[in-house]
Design goal:
The complex is a heterodimer of chains A (126) and B (367). Chain A has helices at residues 26-32, 78-82, 85-89, 114-125, and strands at residues 5-6, 11-16, 19-24, 35-39, 46-47, 52-58, 62-66, 71-76, 98-102. Chain A is α+β, with helices and mostly antiparallel strands and 126 residues long. Chain A is globular, with a radius of gyration of 13 Å. In chain B, a hairpin with a 5-residue loop joins β5 and β6. In chain B, α2 (35-44) crosses α7 (220-229). The radius of gyration of chain B is 21 Å and the shape is globular. Classes of the chains: A alpha+beta (126), B alpha+beta (367). The interface between A and B is medium-sized, with 14 and 17 residues.
């Protein structure tokens, strides 16, 4: 599996072969608070880099989830729809959102590594 | 304008509050445990709410004041005993609601608790209606602290001896150290609880005592989910000048004898609406599944005709699901009526339901 990469919209992404797994970062969940609703893209649908690919709602408000890369949705994580609190518990592990068949792997190049993201996240909250 | 801070601001900071601006005040939306935990803690234990931003309006006067206030509020104030409280509203001539409030008869007049965002406007309206005949004090020297939840009485009674004897919707002065505090048995969470009016300089220490005895600070976020589960209206959402108490389904708060005789601001409209009914009414809404329908979500009937709008909607931690309130055309207001809610461009199933979403009986007290 590839190194974990991060987007400015606070998604994380890992790639295995040509399939990417995408979720939201721990930092994002801390900003959102208790997540009580999750909506995922439909399996088989195509999503475009930086386009919306789902929604999460906390007790306070709704936020869009974006996809950091383009591709076809090949799997979604129904367990976070059934129990959205899992997203707060393990956002960068078992609470992944969806898997994509990558359209253009070069889209990965513009994303941040962990060190860059941590710095970005720290600066964007202060 | 500079943002205002309550006397508990430092305590909120020390407890790692996330702040928001609310009605010109810097107020805690939540603390480190988050809204869901804070909500559940209040339902099972005792939550402390800083409501010092709310207005504490004292109006001093004798029987003439009671007569004059009866020309404003739809209450039977002549028969309201000292230290007893009533929920009511300040209305315009068209029965539109300027504010909802709690009025308590005190020794030399009345104490009215007003919403933070409305208090200055309320003061002007009331001064005008009362023609400046009475001394009116919007007291900013006192903080207002609520403690809510099943353990409130046990915790508060350790600090203020005797509060356990208060009945629901009554209040009294109590000794606290070498001063007096005014405590009422009331609140806005659907739980037993109290609101304590205390001098600003004592507020932080008093709240610390509550914390040391097992209560926890709760933010505005959980206050909102608690009141919504309890089916209670929030000014600016369920209530505003475009809505009347009858449309808001709050007829129970209007004294019976005032309905027949009228003579208060907005009474003609109220009497007409009681007789003829209203075209829209406030209802409870239960979305299917986990979908959250926020404020301003459009409501449709099954034939996809628009029939209303959501005024508050969130996830209810104690009912473990989405809940909402809104206004809907009367003919669709019957419990279990199927409706559709438009969220992010798609229509989702929901149904009308009874209020509250979460039931718990208030303590009536010893009598």
């Amino acid at each position: 599996m590839s190194e974990v990469k991060f987007s400015k919209e606070h998604e994380w992404i890992t790639v295995e072969g040509d399939v990417a797994t995408i979720g939201i970062t721990k930092h994002a969940t801390e900003m959102l608070g208790d997540i009580v609703f999750a909506e995922l893209p439909e399996k088989g649908s195509n999503v475009e880099k930086d386009g919306t690919a789902g929604v999460v709602e906390s007790t306070k408000a709704a936020s869009d989830v974006y996809t950091p890369v383009s591709g076809e949705v090949v799997d979604t994580n129904q367990s976070i729809v059934d129990d959205p609190a899992k997203i707060n518990e393990d956002p960068e592990g078992s609470a992944w959102f969806f898997k994509l068949k990558l359209k253009d792997s070069s889209e990965m190049d513009s994303l941040m590594n962990k060190e860059e993201y941590d710095k970005f996240a720290k600066e964007s909250t202060s | 304008m500079e943002i205002k801070k309550t006397s508990l601001n430092k305590l909120h900071q020390d407890n790692k509050a996330k702040f928001v601006e609310f009605a010109g005040y810097e107020m805690p939306i939540q603390y480190s445990k988050g809204i869901v935990e804070e909500h559940k803690f209040t339902r099972s234990n005792a939550g402390i709410f800083d409501v010092s931003h709310m207005g504490q309006l004292y109006i001093y006067g004798d029987d003439k004041l009671t007569d004059d206030l009866e020309k404003i509020f739809p209450l039977d104030l002549k028969n309201l005993r000292q230290n007893c409280s009533k929920y009511s509203f300040l209305m315009n001539d068209n029965a539109g609601i300027y504010d909802d409030l709690i009025i308590t008869k005190i020794e030399k007049g009345y104490l009215i608790i007003l919403n933070a965002a409305c208090k200055d406007n309320d003061f002007k309206i009331l001064s005008n209606l009362l023609k400046d005949k009475y001394e009116m004090v919007l007291d900013d020297q006192r903080s207002l602290i609520a403690i809510q939840g099943p353990k409130s009485v046990e915790i508060l009674n350790k600090i203020i001896d005797g509060v356990e004897k208060l009945n629901f919707m009554t209040g009294n002065w109590f000794d606290y150290k070498d001063t007096k505090v005014f405590a009422t048995r009331s609140g806005y969470t659907g739980e037993d609880g109290f609101e304590i009016s205390i001098k600003n300089e004592l507020a932080e220490e008093f709240t610390q005592f509550l914390i040391e005895n097992g209560a926890q600070l709760i933010g505005l976020g959980a206050r909102d989910t608690l009141r919504l589960e309890a089916g209670l209206c929030l000014y600016g959402h369920e209530l505003d000048t475009e809505k009347t108490p009858i449309e808001a389904n709050l007829k129970w708060a209007i004294s019976k004898e005032r309905i027949s005789n009228g003579g208060f601001v907005g009474s003609e409209k109220i009497m007409k609406e009681i007789k003829e009914g209203t075209s829209k009414i406030r209802v409870g809404i239960k979305p299917e599944g986990r979908l959250i329908a926020r404020e301003k979500t459009k409501i449709f009937n099954e034939a996809e005709k628009p029939i209303g709008e959501v005024t508050s909607g969130t996830y209810g931690p104690s009912v473990n699901g989405p809940i909402a309130m809104g206004y809907i055309d009367k003919e669709f207001s019957k419990i279990d009526t199927k409706i559709l809610l438009e969220v992010r461009g798609k229509k989702h199933s929901a149904s009308i339901c009874g209020l509250p979403f979460y039931k718990k009986s208030y303590v009536k007290g010893v009598n």
